[in-house]
Amino acid sequence: MTMEADRHSRLLDAVQTAVEQFDSNPDELIPILNQVNRSFGYLPPEALEEVSKRLKMPQSRVHSVATFYQMLSTKPLGRHVIQFCESAPCHVVGGREVWQALQDELKISGGETTPDGKWSLITVSCLGVCGVGPVLIIDNEIFGNVTPQQIPDILARYN
Amino acid sequence: MAFYRSHILVSVDPQCLAKGAHDIIDSLHDELVYQGLIDEIQVLETSRLGDPASEGPDLMVYPEGVHYINLNADDIPFLVEEHFLKGRVVEKFQSTKRAVVDEELGAPKPKEMRVVLSNCGKIDPFNIEDYIAEDGYMALAKVVSEMTPEGVIDEVLQSGLRGRGGAGFPTGKKWQFARQNPGEVKYVICNADEGDPGAFMNRRVLESDPHAVVEGMTIAAYAIGATQGYIYCRAEYPLAVKTLNVAIQQAREFGFLGKNILGSDFSFDLEVRMGAGAFVCGEETALMNSIEGRRGEPRPRPPFPAVRGLWGKPSNINNVETYANVPRIVLRGAEWYSSLGTETSKGTKTFALAGDVVNTGLIEVPLGITIREVVYDVGGGIKDGKGFKAVQIGGPAGGCLPTQYLDYPIDYESLRSAGAMMGSGGLVVMDDETCMVDIARFFMDFIQDESCGKCVPCRVGTRRMLDILERICDGKGQESDIDTLEELCREVGSTSLCGLGQGAPNPVATTLKYFRDEYEAHIKEKRCPAKVCKALIEYVIKPDACTGCTVCARNCPVNAITGERRSVHHIDSDICIRCGICMQVCNFNAIEIH
């Protein structure tokens, strides 16, 4: 099988699993898209088309939801996604310096992905763990009380 | 129905059982019967309390929260007589080390009163029996066995409970509307989309005491006649979603949810729905769109949710804290609840105290407490001995209140009259080194980013306000900017579709009202009085303090500092990027900001 065909079939599988997990219920469009987003890393156009077919819902509606929510991405993301809290409580306890260190270390700006496809750097609104700010999340792991000096060590844990 | 004044929780951890926990329970039972206390004190089995290896068998006495360890069945008669008959704690069995360090929620500080947070950190959120031991689901039992729906609504009305999401609408009235509106199918919804930056009271309640919310919602469902409920929780709170799902499952197993709750003919079930990251979904109509699987954009009101809510059916929507108050009100009575607070704002309110105060974290205070008491008594005063400048209350759509409001009471009406609002409970204290124009810019940046874009005043108006504020902070403010901002505040506030846009101008309007001189200094004198706005400050070396040690020049990232060794150095303001490193590294305090 070619790589393209392999990718396509993995994508269809991801959509099918997600849709069936929520009993093909159109009200559960957001959890379904979330699930596909998680298993595939982002929501490619073919996935949105497949979701719309399976839920018997206009593509425009699927697209409107996919582009509305911060956690759904219609652009490919890196293998690891860094979410950085940009809210006031983190900002005032040194968040700005950590954000700068992240951008310097990865040599990309917010919203971008490194050319090797390893990292994506995005900002996120308050995660509600303000007691241990500045806070960042890599994939599903949360790091609190982060200092700019820790950034290289934290990043080195991922390959 | 029986009410107990005390509960004894005996650990039946396997290790405690092996060391005779069942003998303790039997002995307790015999002794309570012998002393005639069996109708007042309930003995329950619970999971692990302390360390069973070194402390078991052990037990916990509530409401005092006394932990007795290393017990033997022979000690029980003495313990019962001393503790329950004479009311004396038996020190020789009392565990001394139960100090748990909790960064978010410490021991209650002076002037605090914990109602909603009373179970947090005390019970195991994954064990429904812990909640039951704290009189959990007693209120629901009372409601379904003794009260009519109208009676429940009346009790909540009498208590004076108002919406804790921030707007302060009387909860009983909301329930009344939802009950009166005709419809076969009705819904109760819990707004757990706590998006205000810095506010995490609801997360803590969901993670530490989820059953209080489940019970409150079930009572609301009984009152309005709903059979299905939804908790809309933001996706940023994965642990809260997990505790809620476990709580719902356990409540079903115990018959507190599902068909024929507690043997009555009332049936109700709950589901958790997750967002996917959108601040505006905290707005009730946007939230309902999101539950339905649509874009989280607000709908025009009226019709209000009580008339046409979720899937067009009459719906009641309250916040986490509002529901968590309900079981306590039903159990302890409207009279008790309405004895707390002020004439129009009853009960307690949780806040997330943040910013430049000594004690940050979660607090719960009776309404009517003054801002001064919160900042100085609960918060322990301003950090590093600096002065108080303002408190930002009510989240990004709240307002900044200055010193003259320190003795103002925190209640719905007072805050609104001052231009702020109760909001969900974010409370950011600012010291005298804060630039209020910069703060206004910061909040506007957030609002502008989170505006959903459906209505023009909010989408375009907040963008324009942000442009102007950025211009002012950059030292490019124009004379007409203040007037334009004031006009935009009025327009955006009065013509936006939902609460997000209507509240958006508050931080700007209040800072313009109370700190106008700072705006004027930025615009007319091109000066930032708090020395925060980078374009308006200059780093200067004091010639008489500089020793010419060259440390600043060597550390400057852009080589803006020149000067020979042992002679006074000079900073070139055109090259300087105002990073402040020179000031940090100077050993002689020779660098100041102009």
Query: Total number of helical segments of chain A?
Result: 6
Domain module count of chain B = 5
Overall pLDDT of chain A, averaged? 90
| Largest β-sheet summary of chain A | 5 strands, mixed
- Strand content range of chain A: 5-15%
What letter string, H or E per element, gives the SSE order of chain A?
Answer: HHHHEHEEEEH
Helix content of chain A: 40-55%
Instruction: Evaluate the radius of gyration of chain A.
Output: 18 Å
Rg of chain B, Å, rounded? 28 Å
SS summary, helix count of chain B: 24
GO molecular function, one term (chain B): metal ion binding
InterPro entries (chain B): 4Fe4S_Fe-S-bd, 4Fe4S_Fe_S_CS, NADH-UbQ_OxRdtase_51kDa_CS, Nuo51_FMN-bd, Nuo51_FMN-bd_sf, Nuop51_4Fe4S-bd, Nuop51_4Fe4S-bd_sf, Thioredoxin-like_sf
Family (chain B): Belongs to the complex I 51 kDa subunit family.
Keywords (chain B): 4Fe-4S, Iron, Iron-sulfur, Metal-binding
Layout of SSEs?
The complex is a heterodimer of chains A (159) and B (594).
Chain A: H1 3-21, H2 29-40, H3 45-55, H4 59-66, E1 80-85, H5 88-106, E2 112-113, E3 119-124, E4 136-138, E5 141-143, H6 151-156
Chain B: E1 6-11, H1 14-18, H2 21-34, E2 41-46, H3 52-55, E3 59-62, E4 66-68, H4 76-85, H5 128-133, H6 138-146, H7 149-159, H8 171-180, E5 187-192, H9 201-208, H10 210-224, E6 228-233, H11 238-253, E7 269-274, H12 284-291, E8 315-319, H13 320-332, H14 334-338, E9 348-355, E10 361-366, H15 371-378, E11 388-393, E12 399-402, H16 412-417, E13 426-431, H17 436-450, H18 456-473, H19 481-495, H20 499-503, H21 506-514, H22 516-524, E14 539-541, H23 551-555, E15 561-562, E16 570-571, H24 581-585, E17 591-593
Parallel strand pairs in B: 1-2, 5-6, 5-8, 6-7, 9-13
Antiparallel strand pairs in B: 1-3, 3-4, 9-10, 11-12, 11-13, 14-17, 15-16
Helix pairs in contact in B: 6-10, 6-13, 7-8, 7-10, 9-10, 9-11, 10-13, 17-18, 18-19, 19-21
